[in-house]
Amino acid sequence: MTKPSAVADVMTVGEFNRRINLLFEQDPEMQRARVQGEISDFKRYPSGHSYFTLKDDEAAVSCVLFRGSAGRVNFSPQSGMKVIAVGKPNVYDKTGRFQFIVSGMEQAGLGDLYLAFEQLKKKLAAEGLFAQERKLAIPYIPQRIVAITSEAGAVIRDIIHVLERRYPGFNLLLIPVPVQGKGAELQIAAAIRQANAENLGDVIIVGRGGGSLEDLQAFNEEIVARAIAESQIPVISAVGHETDYTIVDFVSDLRAPTPSAAAELAVPHKARLLERQEQLSSALELSVLRRLESERKRLRQLRERPVLMQAAEFVAPQRRQLDFLRQQLLSEMRRLPREARNQLLPLQHRLSRPLEQKHARESKKLELLSSRLVNIIRSRTATQRSLFERLLVSLDALSPLAILARGYNLTYTEDKQLISSVSEVTRGDTISVRLQDGSLLCDVREIILEAGK
Question: pTM (2 decimals)?
Answer without folding.
Answer: 0.48
